[in-house]
Specification:
219 residues; alpha+beta; Ribosomal Protein L9, domain 1; four-stranded mixed β-sheet; four-stranded antiparallel β-sheet; 5 helices; 13 strands; binds FE2/S2 (inorganic) cluster
Length: 219
């Protein structure tokens, strides 16, 4: 049974072959709806966010998904859904490629540890533990996490937020619930994740970095 506070948490619903519908569950007055006494009715507020990539009114849905026959089918190769562990002297870094949205904050933020094109591409002894932790906390998709002394750290305590990344996905933080949850990748976080908005991810509803390949632009 959820507490009243939990019920007020926002929630994202993936509508079938259509937009993400965001309900915030905080009742608000509807300006144009009143009873005979002139009292406004209250309702929860819903916002529809484009996920086909075709809306002319991004980030909001304008109905284009119907015209272009958008499908939300997940066609990801499940064999790629595998977590790798990179063990260092003081910290072990975990990475699941299937979750990665290719934000590149790790390779740009700490190139001595996250080496673009390197083999291995993650080197957990390449810098201080503090810097590694700070960098992993910037990972928007949950593809990266870490363990120290056998205890894994992945989620953070944050206010619910959806950040619309320029030319990229919706970055969800603060444990916003997916109302009709898809099959989650191995060790996926429900506190932070990235949702595709270009329409091209194979791992819908999650971003798999394909927006880079198709040069998605959100202008
Ligand atoms: S927004 Fe990243 S794959 Fe669609």
């Amino acid at each position: 049974m959820k507490t009243s506070e939990e019920r007020k948490m926002p929630q994202i619903k993936c509508s079938l072959d259509g937009p993400y519908v965001l309900n915030d569950f905080i009742e608000r007055e509807v300006a144009y709806l009143q009873n005979e006494q002139g009292e406004k009715y209250c309702r929860t507020v819903g916002v529809s966010l484009c996920r086909c990539g075709g809306s002319k009114n991004k980030p909001f849905c304008d109905g284009t998904h119907k015209q272009i026959g958008f499908s939300d089918k997940n066609s990801a190769d499940s064999t790629l859904d595998k977590r790798q562990n990179f063990e260092g002297k003081e910290i072990t870094i975990h990475f699941n490629r299937a979750l990665c949205s290719s934000s590149e904050r790790c390779v740009h933020g700490l190139p001595s540890v996250f080496v673009a094109g390197g083999k291995p591409w993650i080197r957990p002894d390449g810098d201080t533990v503090a810097k590694i932790i700070a960098t992993i906390k910037q990972c928007p998709s949950g593809a990266l996490s870490y363990s120290i002394d056998g205890v894994e750290y992945r989620d953070q305590v944050r206010e619910p937020m959806i950040t619309v990344a320029k030319n990229g996905p919706y970055e969800v933080t603060g444990s916003i619930e997916l109302a009709n949850p898809p099959t989650l990748c191995e060790c996926a976080s429900t506190e932070h994740y990235t949702l595709c908005r270009c329409g091209a991810s194979k791992n819908k509803p999650f971003c798999d970095g394909t927006h880079w390949e198709i040069n998605f632009t959100s202008e």
